[in-house]
Amino acid sequence: MQNKDHNIQKALKEYLTLLEQEQYFDAHEVLEEAWHPLRKANHPLKNLVKGLINGAVSFEHIKRDRVDAQRKAATVYKSFEKHKHLLVEGIEEYELFKKACKKIEHLHQTNKTYESLP
Predict the structure, then answer these.
(1) CA distance 57 to 54
(2) Cα angle at 74 between 11 and 104, to 5 degrees?
(3) Could you give the CA distance from residue 111 to residue 93 in angstroms, rounded to a whole number?
(4) Which range marks the domain in which residue 64 is found?
(5) Minimal CA–CA distance to 111: which of 69, 83, 82, 79?
(6) What is the pTM of this model?
(7) In this predicted model, what pLDDT tens digit does every residue of 31-70 receive, in sequence order?
(8) How far is it, in rounded angstroms, from Cα 48 to Cα 52?
(9) Contacts of 111 (CB under 8 A, 6+ apart)
(10) Which parts of the chain fold into alpha helices (H)?
(11) For residue 90, how many other CB atoms are within 10 A of its CB?
């Protein structure tokens, strides 16, 4: 488990850096790579990681501003909303998960595109 913990720690740190740089697709990719082994092992954190992946994807939709981007962004963001309750004290890498969730929520609150969405 130590190697898996290290992988999620490293991925979360890189994810946070990429979000700061507005590299949402790359942030999604980094976390998705760490998510696959969690998903296969049915790890309890798999859905929290999935929510963070989708949080980043929502901002990539907005950034690319393609057809129906706002609706797609809102739909994917709902996955983050659905899974963020899994952030509870005591989980491994709690502080990094907390920072990641706060960053996604901050991006959502400060993004003007979301102001017009339900």
Answers:
(1) 5
(2) 35
(3) 27
(4) 2-115
(5) 69
(6) 0.88
(7) 999 999 999 999 999 999 999 999 999 999 988 888 888 8
(8) 6
(9) 59, 62
(10) 2-20, 24-40, 46-64, 69-83, 94-110, 112-115
(11) 5
- Give the count of domains, the chain: 1
- pLDDT per residue as tens digits for the range 75-111: 999 999 999 999 999 999 999 999 999 999 999 988 7
Closest to 74 measured CA to CA, from 35, 20, 116, 110: 116
Query: 51 near 86, Cβ under 8 Å?
Result: yes
Residue 79 per-residue DSSP state? H
The dihedral built from the CA positions of residue 82, 26, 8 and 90, taken in this order, carries a sign that is negative
CATH of residue 46: 1.10.3450
Tokens representing residue 113 in the block: 């595109």
